[in-house]
Backbone:
């Protein structure tokens, strides 16, 4: 009978008692590092505090990095809103049988053509009229000095002389932008930012459907249809507001241009109407600031013209607020007046003029989502 060597494997040598192995000790272990402890409790105050603090530090770092690229974020947001404003025109061309790529090219070409023609036609006129305003500023300051109240304030604070020196010396642009080099850099930066916004707008317009589909696919299948409808409504709301804001501003600019020619300020009509157009885009205070500027120049020219400007803008702002604005914006934004004021103030504090422009459609979108999602869910309970 043969002997199985495997049976003797691990057996104690002859004459020695067998070694009893502890069941808890792994075989072939030459160093004892002790028993592993229980997992660290995730509900421990130390665990929560450590990882909570680490998350707060990461969030703070991300926030600081976002602030560092604030200017780039502003350009991206402006391009997105411009794309949303031009998208209704693109969709109108698509419904007429034009492919979206060609429709985007047509809209962008039309936009750039109008902008170029506007610059070529208006900028020289505006430059001449701004020069005329600067040349006539000393005469207006002399008129102000004859006013007793203004003279009393000027004797205390020397306001008129400082303002007159600031304007008539002609170097206020240099002082603002930091000299000739600063002016050149500012112009170059404006051109570069415009180019970036145009390129981003073209990209967002051309890839809008693809981008929307990709974002909507992030939602669960059971909710994707509702998310798609809500997202499309938000996009239409933003696009309608952007388009409507420029329509309202154009009405203000054209009306002011006609009025200024009639009232006797034709020498500065184009420049002042352009100022009114730009300022009217700013919600709440833009139209008032434009009216104050035009009225002040009207009073400096002739008190009768100044009174006519005040009366005209008081009437026009009522017409704009209660007739033009509701008709233009009725299908784009539905937002209470108090929310409009708060949104504009918050947007201006965060991003300046751009924030004020974007605050109202953003607030309208948030309010619509709140009504459709949160309020409806609460009503169903």
Residues:
């Amino acid at each position: 009978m043969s002997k199985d060597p495997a049976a003797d494997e691990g057996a104690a040598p002859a004459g020695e008692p067998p070694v009893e192995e502890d069941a808890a000790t792994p075989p072939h272990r030459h160093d004892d590092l002790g028993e592993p402890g229980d997992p660290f409790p995730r509900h421990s105050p130390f665990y929560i505090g450590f990882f909570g603090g680490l998350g707060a530090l990461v969030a703070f770092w991300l926030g600081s990095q976002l602030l560092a690229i604030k200017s780039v974020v502003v350009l991206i947001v402006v391009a997105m809103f411009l794309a949303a404003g031009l998208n209704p025109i693109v969709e109108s061309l698509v419904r007429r049988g034009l492919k979206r790529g060609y429709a985007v090219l047509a809209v962008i070409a039309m936009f750039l053509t109008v902008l170029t023609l506007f610059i070529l036609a208006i900028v020289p006129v505006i430059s001449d009229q701004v020069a005329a305003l600067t040349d006539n500023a000393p005469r207006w300051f002399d008129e102000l000095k004859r006013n007793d109240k203004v003279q009393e304030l000027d004797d205390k604070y020397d306001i008129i002389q400082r303002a007159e020196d600031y304007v008539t010396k002609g170097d206020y642009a240099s002082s603002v932008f930091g000299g000739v080099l600063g002016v050149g850099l500012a112009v170059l930066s404006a051109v570069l930012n415009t180019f970036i916004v145009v390129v981003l707008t073209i990209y967002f317009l051309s890839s809008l459907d693809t981008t929307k589909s990709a974002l909507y696919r992030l939602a669960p299948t059971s909710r994707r249809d509702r998310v798609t409808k809500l997202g499309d409504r938000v996009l239409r709301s933003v696009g309608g507001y952007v388009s409507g804001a420029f329509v309202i501003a154009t009405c203000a600019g054209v009306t002011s241009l006609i009025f200024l020619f009639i009232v006797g300020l034709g020498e500065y009509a184009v420049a002042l109407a352009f100022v009114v157009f730009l300022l009217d885009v700013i919600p709440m205070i833009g139209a008032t600031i434009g009216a104050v500027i035009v009225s002040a120049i009207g009073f400096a020219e002739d008190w009768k013209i100044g009174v006519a400007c005040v009366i005209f803008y008081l009437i026009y702002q009522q017409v704009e607020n209660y007739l033009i604005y509701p008709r233009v914006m009725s299908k784009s934004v539905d937002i209470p007046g108090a929310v409009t004021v708060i949104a504009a103030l918050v947007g201006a504090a965060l991003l300046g003029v751009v924030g004020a422009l974007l605050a109202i459609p953003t607030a309208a979108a948030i309010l619509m989502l709140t009504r459709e999602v949160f309020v409806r869910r609460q009503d169903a309970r």
Q: What stands out?
A: The chain has a mean pLDDT of 75. The two ends are 85 Å apart (CA to CA). The first helix runs from residue 45 to 68. DSSP finds 13 helices and no strands in the chain.
